[in-house]
Design goal:
Blueprint (H helix, E strand, L loop, with lengths): L1 H8 L2 E7 L6 H11 L8 H8 L4 H13 L4 H17 L2 E8 L1 H6 L4 H19 L2 E9 L4 H13 L7 E5 L11 H9 L3 E6 L5 H10 L4 E4 L7 H10 L3 E3 L1 H6 L11 H6 L4 E3 L11 H12 L3 H14 L4 H23 L14
C-alpha cells in the first residue's frame, strides 16, 4: 500500500494521452445532454460499462461518439479542464496531449474558436490545479493531405497558445507516411517538434519510416522495435524515446499479457521510454495504474519508478528553464514522499540497468 500511495502522489509527466480519449463518462453525459445527442446509456454507470474496451471497432465507435458531442468552444474548455483536474489528482504536473483538430473541423466546429477555448482552459487549469498541459495536434494518416494541411496550419498558428509539436497518428499498417513528408518538413522549418505513432500495429519498418519521413523526435508506442535488434540499438544510440502505453497495447492485442510486453526489454537496452495511458477511461486505466502494473510485472522499486517519471520529464518538449525548475521540484517531492511513505528518501534511478 505504501508503494501505491507513493505512485499516486509522486510527481509525474505524461507524453502520450489523447485529449478526446481522456473524457470521463460524467463529462460525456453532460455534453450529450447539452446538445441533445443520444448515447447508448443514460447514466454514468451505463456509460462506464459502454466505455469498457471490447475490440477496435468498438473503440472507434466510442471515440467518434465523443467527437460528435464536442460541438462548440465551451465543450472543449470543459473537456480540457476536467482532464487537468484528473491529472492534478494524480500529481501529473505536465502533460503533452494529442488532439485531432481535423476531426472537429470536419464536424463543423470553428478551429480558431477551439484554439482560443483550449488556451483559456490551459491557463485556467494551471491557476486552479497547478498543472500544465501542452497540445500535439495530430495528422491522421487515414484522412489524407487536405486534413493534414489544416492540422499543420492550425498547429503553426497556435504555437504560442500551447501547441508544442505536430503529431502523426492513424493506421500505421495500412496507410503510408510519405504523403505527409512535406508537412513535417514545414513543421521542422518553423521550429515545431515532431512525434509519430509507429511500432504498434505495424512492425519495426513503421518506426524506420516515421524517423525518415516525419523526422520524429519521439515515437508514440514504438514497442515493436524489439523485433529488430539493430533498430533497438539505433534508438538507444540516438536517444529517440518511445512513449509506451502498456494497458493500451494489451487491449489492442499487441501483446497478450503484461509479462510479454517489451517495455523492460527496451528499457534495459538503453532506449529512452516513458509510461503513458493513451485513452485512460476507454482502457479502464490511469497513469498511476500503468506505473503500478509495470512495477508488479517487472519488479521495479520506488527509485526506478521515480526514474521513469524523471526520464519522461527529460523527454518533454519544455524549455530548459521550465525543465530545470520541475526537476528540482520532482527531486524534492521524491525525497519527502519517500521519507513519509517508505521510510527513506527516494533517489531516482534514471539510467537503464545493465541487468536485473
Amino acid at each position: 500500500m505504501s508503494l501505491d500511495a507513493f505512485l499516486l502522489r509522486m510527481p509525474k509527466v505524461e507524453l502520450h494521452v489523447h485529449l478526446e480519449g481522456s473524457i470521463r463518462p460524467s463529462t460525456l453525459l453532460r455534453l450529450a445532454n447539452r446538445h441533445g445527442v443520444e448515447l447508448p446509456a443514460s447514466d454514468t454507470a451505463g456509460l462506464r460499462e459502454w466505455f469498457r474496451f471490447r475490440d477496435f471497432e468498438h473503440f472507434v465507435e466510442v471515440y467518434l461518439t465523443v467527437s460528435r458531442c464536442l460541438r462548440d468552444p465551451e465543450d472543449f474548455r470543459t473537456l480540457a479542464l476536467d482532464f487537468m483536474a484528473e491529472q492534478a489528482r494524480q500529481n501529473v504536473v505536465y502533460t503533452e496531449a494529442h488532439f485531432t483538430i481535423s476531426t472537429h473541423a470536419a464536424n463543423g466546429v470553428d478551429p480558431d474558436g477551439v484554439a482560443e477555448a483550449l488556451a483559456e482552459a490551459i491557463a485556467e487549469g494551471r491557476r486552479r490545479f497547478g498543472v500544465r498541459m501542452a497540445l500535439i495536434p495530430d495528422v491522421v494518416r487515414n484522412v489524407g493531405p487536405e486534413a493534414a494541411d489544416l492540422t499543420l496550419e492550425w498547429a503553426l498558428a497556435h504555437r504560442g497558445e500551447g501547441v508544442v509539436a505536430l503529431g502523426l497518428s492513424g493506421s500505421e499498417d495500412r496507410f503510408p507516411n510519405e504523403p505527409y513528408r512535406e508537412h513535417f518538413a514545414a513543421a521542422e522549418r518553423q521550429g515545431l517538434h515532431r512525434v509519430a505513432h509507429a511500432g504498434e500495429h505495424a512492425g519495426p519498418e513503421s518506426i524506420r519510416s516515421a524517423l525518415a519521413v516525419a523526422r520524429a523526435e519521439r515515437i508514440g508506442h514504438g514497442v515493436r522495435a524489439a523485433e529488430d535488434p539493430e533498430l533497438v540499438a539505433e534508438l538507444a544510440r540516438r536517444g529517440i524515446p518511445c512513449e509506451v502505453c502498456p494497458t493500451s497495447n494489451l487491449c489492442l492485442g499487441v501483446y497478450p499479457t503484461m509479462a510479454a510486453h517489451t517495455f523492460d526489454l527496451l528499457h534495459r537496452a538503453g532506449v529512452p521510454v516513458s509510461i503513458n495511458s493513451d485513452d485512460p477511461p476507454f482502457f479502464n486505466t490511469t497513469l498511476t495504474q500503468e506505473y503500478a502494473a509495470l512495477a508488479e510485472t517487472f519488479g521495479y522499486d520506488a527509485e526506478e519508478l521515480a526514474g521513469f517519471s524523471l526520464a519522461a520529464l527529460d523527454q518533454a518538449f519544455l524549455t530548459a528553464d521550465a525543465h530545470d525548475h520541475l526537476e528540482a521540484r520532482f527531486r524534492e517531492q521524491f525525497a519527502s514522499l519517500g521519507e513519509e511513505l517508505l521510510g527513506e528518501a527516494v533517489e531516482p534511478v534514471v539510467e537503464a540497468p545493465a541487468s536485473r
